[in-house]
Design brief:
Oligomer: heterodimer
Structural class of chain B: mainly alpha
Number of helices of chain B: 7
Strand content of chain A: under 5%
Order of helices and strands of chain B: HHHHHHH
Radius of gyration of chain B: 20 Å
Largest sheet of chain B: none
Strand content of chain B: under 5%
Number of helices of chain A: 1
Number of strands of chain B: 0
Helix content of chain B: over 70%
Number of strands of chain A: 0
Number of domains of chain B: 1
């Protein structure tokens, strides 16, 4: 079982990259959604 | 939203099944021992990254021809996702290389062309962040994306055309190459969750870019109002 730690490290890091990326996309989407709602509301108020 | 959550759960299950197959179904390699099992992660990440860049290329060419923002959204989504997979490939490669080659990295044709590929798509995203005007940003980045894609066939062919420290291809390789049938079956099985993950990430990123497009429209309406 020599180098088993390397295999675990590779899996953890790769999965970590995908998880963090998915999280950043979700966060950016939430922030944009909020901004879009604010702009739409202020546009409706100005009309 | 519920559909996306269900699909994400399905992808996680597939990833877990692939890890199980990689650890418990594939036989241990006689020469490398357990460390070779990184192949079931490293190769699917590399192939999925190249496929994402191909999708980006399709989006770039379609944008130049049709000037429809949707193709630009596809291009940037695929570029980012491709970059995530290529980053995973570039990180898992050295972790595998160190115990097998005795070194983390070497500047051979495969590793160098992959590092250049990574830098090219980072430059693609940087270029986009520097241009404010949406149509100009989409056109210039599409042209740059088409240029960047030239490196993809180089990465694919590098281990076929030149002598490299990186092993020769085990799939679609020359005579005498190949894998044990069980290893090969597990490798293909491990590619499926990566493709499913690519679709999930690309869909999420595309939705984000579409929202950004809506935001630009609302902003313009506000400026003219």
């Amino acid at each position: 079982m020599k180098n088993l730690n390397s295999v675990f490290a590779a899996y953890l890091i790769a999965w970590g990259i995908f998880f963090v990326y998915y999280l950043t996309v979700a966060r950016r989407a939430a922030a944009l959604r909020e901004e879009l709602e604010k702009l739409k509301n202020s546009l409706a108020r100005n009309k | 939203m519920k559909k996306q959550a269900a699909y994400a759960a399905f992808v996680v299950l597939l990833l877990a099944a692939a890890a199980y197959a990689a650890f418990f179904i594939a036989p241990t390699d006689a020469r490398q021992g357990v460390v070779y099992r990184i192949i079931f992660l490293h190769v699917p990440c590399a192939e999925t990254g190249l496929l994402s860049f191909f999708v980006c290329f399709v989006g770039n060419v379609a944008y130049v021809l049709k000037r429809d923002a949707k193709w630009d959204w596809l291009g940037v989504s695929a570029a980012e996702v491709g970059l995530a997979f290529t980053t995973a490939c570039l990180v898992t490669g050295p972790i595998w290389a160190k115990p097998v080659w005795g070194i983390w990295w070497t500047w051979d044709a495969r590793l160098t062309s992959t590092a250049v590929l990574w830098l090219l798509y980072v430059a693609y995203l940087l270029l986009r962040s520097l241009i404010e005007e949406p149509e100009r940003r989409a056109l210039l980045s599409a042209l740059f994306g088409i240029f960047a894609f030239i490196d993809v066939p180089l990465v694919f062919g590098s281990i076929r055309w030149w002598r490299t420290q990186h092993p020769q291809p085990v799939i679609m390789g020359g005579p005498g190459s190949g894998l044990d049938p069980t290893m090969k079956a597990v490798l293909f099985f491990c590619w499926a969750p990566m493709l499913a993950l690519m679709v999930l990430l690309m869909q999420s990123r595309y939705r984000l870019e579409a929202m950004r497009g809506d935001l630009d429209i609302v902003r313009r309406e506000m400026e003219t109002a």
